[in-house]
Specification:
The protein is mostly helical. It is 83% helix and 0% strand. It has helices at 11-30, 36-71, 77-99, 107-146, 149-162, 165-178, 181-194, 197-210, 213-227. The longest helix is centred in the middle third of the chain and has 40 residues, at 107-146. The two termini are 36 Å apart. Bound molecules: fe (ii) ion.
């Protein structure tokens, strides 16, 4: 399907979610589950990303689905139920990883539990892919049908304002490398124009850490232009 020129509230976060899951599933695939430090490191990354997923679902419920429900009664049910099911699955997956930290486990048992966790993480990834596609097609079409571009941009502003700076920084390490150059410039120019300079510098430090040097240089030259 061709990308619409109309505003979307989900393209940016969903690219970040796909990027993060892809990274996590690769890491979970080649991890040595007998090495507790490696398991603990993956657990802390998954805990943080899990928090971002919960917060993302909460924002969709509060701002997008509530608004949609007011204009099209019953239209929010499917996505809201998905959010509940995805969160329950996430809790199960995290508990499976936590259990591998038990120091009494034999190496054989830790490897077997690691593989079972890896399969479940794949199930969670697949469930999110399906859910996001539904939101990007069915839910998105409903929004475009029942809301003007200005109203959608208004919702976007409310959503962005509700995200605390530290949460935005956690998102940035997935969003920046996940976006293409145009989308990245749009995101960072918005932060450059609307946020305190110290925050923008923190975001740029993440860009430098997560992007190849040629992409950082392109970004810096475009943002210099955007600043004048
Ligand atoms: Fe969602």
């Amino acid at each position: 399907m061709e990308q619409s020129t109309r505003p979307s509230l989900v393209v940016t976060p969903h690219k970040g979610i796909r990027y993060a899951f892809a990274q996590l599933i690769m890491k979970a695939g080649n991890l040595d589950y007998t090495d507790k430090a490696q398991v603990a490191d993956l657990k802390s990354q998954l805990d943080e990303f899990g928090g971002l997923l919960e917060e993302h679902a909460h924002l969709e419920n509060e701002f997008i689905l509530k608004s949609l429900e007011q204009r099209v009664p019953g239209s929010a049910d499917h996505d809201e139920q998905d959010h509940v099911a995805l969160e329950a699955l996430q809790v199960e997956v995290l508990a499976k990883l936590e259990a591998i930290l038990d120091p009494r486990l034999s190496d054989t048992k830790a490897r077997a539990m690691g593989y079972a966790f890896y399969q479940d993480l794949g199930k969670l990834y697949a469930a999110h892919l399906e859910h996001m596609l539904e939101e990007e097609t069915v839910t998105q079409q409903l929004l475009w049908k029942h809301f003007s571009d200005m109203e959608i941009i208004g919702l976007h502003v409310q959503i962005v304002r509700s995200i605390p700076p530290e949460v935005m920084l956690s998102w940035a390490k997935y969003l920046i490398p996940a976006l293409n150059l145009n989308e990245r410039i749009e995101l960072l120019a918005g932060i450059q124009a609307g946020a305190p300079p110290a925050f923008f510098e923190q975001v740029m430090a993440i860009a430098k850490k997560t992007l190849p040097t040629p992409d950082v240089l392109k970004l810096e030259s475009k943002l210099m232009i955007a600043a004048f």
